[in-house]
């Protein structure tokens, strides 16, 4: 029986990297205590919350993790819909945006928004920009509101 002890692993040829399926290749994060952003639009609009990653491999999965600590949905019948876009394309599941918060009791709603999605179709080693979009379903003014907790957007490249 032999033991292999290694202090570091360095790629032999630049650009090849160490590629182990299922392992994290890189993680990019933006942990920021933002103020707030709001909309009355019934069409998805950019929140200004975005982050870019340059995948090392075209077949990698990019995991997107977005959390905003508080949402204000003001009245009965109001809804906030949030979605993740990659380079201007909605990554919604089956064409429907990924986050949905509905007010059905008349009192203002203050839940948090958390969206996690897997991007398996980017097929690129060029920079990819992921951005959070949102809208209201009723025309009411809905807000993403900072409440003292950090907002974060994280992108994880996972080897395949």
Q: Main beta sheet: strand number and arrangement?
A: 5 strands, antiparallel
Report the order of strands and helices. EEEEEEEEEEEE
Helix count from the secondary structure assignment: 0
User: In percent, how helical is the residue content?
Assistant: under 10%
Walk me through what this model shows:
By secondary structure, the protein is mostly beta strands. 0% of the residues lie in helices and 46% in strands. It is built from no helices and twelve strands. It has strands at 24-32, 36-39, 45-53, 61-68, 71-72, 79-86, 89-90, 99-102, 113-119, 128-136, 142-145, 151-158. The strands form three sheets. Strands 3, 6, 7, 8 and 10 form a five-stranded antiparallel beta sheet that branches. Strand 6 and strand 7 form a beta hairpin. The two termini are 31 Å apart. The model has no long low-confidence stretch (mean pLDDT 83).
């Amino acid at each position: 029986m032999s033991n292999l002890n290694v202090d570091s692993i360095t790629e032999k040829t630049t650009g090849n990297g160490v590629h182990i399926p299922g392992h994290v290749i890189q993680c990019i994060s933006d942990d920021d205590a933002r103020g707030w952003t709001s909309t009355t639009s019934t069409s998805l609009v950019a929140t200004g919350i975005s982050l870019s990653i340059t995948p090392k491999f075209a077949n990698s999965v990019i995991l997107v993790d977005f959390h905003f600590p508080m949402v204000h949905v003001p009245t009965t019948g109001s809804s906030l819909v949030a979605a993740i876009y990659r380079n201007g394309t909605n990554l919604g599941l089956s064409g429907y945006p990924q986050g949905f918060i509905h007010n059905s009791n008349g009192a203002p709603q203050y839940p948090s928004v958390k969206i996690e999605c897997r991007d398996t179709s980017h097929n690129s080693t060029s920079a990819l920009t992921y951005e959070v979009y949102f809208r209201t379903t009723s025309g009411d003014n809905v807000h993403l509101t900072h409440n003292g907790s950090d907002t974060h957007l994280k992108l994880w490249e996972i080897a395949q």
